[in-house]
Write a structure and sequence with these properties.
Blueprint: E1 13-15, E2 19-23, H1 29-39, H2 58-73, E3 78-84, E4 90-100, E5 105-112, H3 121-135, E6 141-147, H4 151-159, E7 163-173, E8 179-188, H5 195-198, H6 201-210
Parallel strand pairs: 5-6
Antiparallel strand pairs: 1-2, 2-3, 3-4, 4-5, 6-8, 7-8
Helix pairs in contact: 1-2
Bound molecules: coenzyme A.
Residues 42-43, 46-47, 109-112, 117-123, 146, 150, 152-153, 155-156 line the site of coenzyme A.
Length: 211
Amino acid sequence: MTQREVPTQLPECIEAERVYLRRYRLDDGELILRVARANRDHLAHYEATNALRTITTQDEADAVVRRFVEAWDKGQAFFLGAFHRSTDAFVAQVYVGPTDRKLPAYTIGFFADKDHEGMGYVSEAVRAVFRCLFHELGAHRVRLECDDSNVRSARVAERCGMVREGHLRENKRNPDGSLTGTLLYGLLRSDYPSADLLESPRDRRSQRRTL
Ligand SMILES: CC(C)(COP(=O)(O)OP(=O)(O)OC[C@H]1O[C@@H](n2cnc3c(N)ncnc32)[C@H](O)[C@@H]1OP(=O)(O)O)[C@@H](O)C(=O)NCCC(=O)NCCS
């Protein structure tokens, strides 16, 4: 039996309730420089290796944007900015990386803009990305790894229906030498806790209208 052909590229724009996500464009250098400067300290502990933390100048920001665009075009990594629908303010970033084309499986990562933390935008954006991965890209599995002291990140994972699959205890050191562990989260197609996660808000609205 031949397998159904599924796209391997995320859509360039993903709509959610309060936010939309879009891939970065070559002219996003100024945005990325602003985001990088505003979030340098915010990302220091749990996202120490985030590419945005390497940026101090406009040239460096432009180079990172070029890398994001190239990685997207090659289908190697998908970096999406999440923006508020009414103000267009940058509120978060979601990363999606293909890890196994045959399964297919993906890994995700995210951060909230420091001035937009605690408002539910990350969970909303991640749910929208899950819908896309399972509906449009035929994902079988999505995983997330987070530091075991990163309570906010674990809460996003669990709010979005991910299942805690493991806990690697004291498997790495912080820059100050202290030990820390890693939580492993996964979401299978069959884990969807309710149709709410699977359907887009628009699907739900049009379904309600036809009832
Ligand atoms: C981890 C991180 C992304 C979590 O961000 P966050 O803002 O807590 O996540 P959300 O946007 O989903 O917001 C959820 C919070 O908004 C609250 N909230 C407020 N208004 C809301 C609304 N209208 N709708 C939904 N939630 C709302 C929720 O109650 C929740 O608060 P709680 O966790 O105290 O219960 C963020 O702390 C971060 O960027 N950390 C640094 C980088 C990082 O750790 N990245 C992850 C590496 S694995």
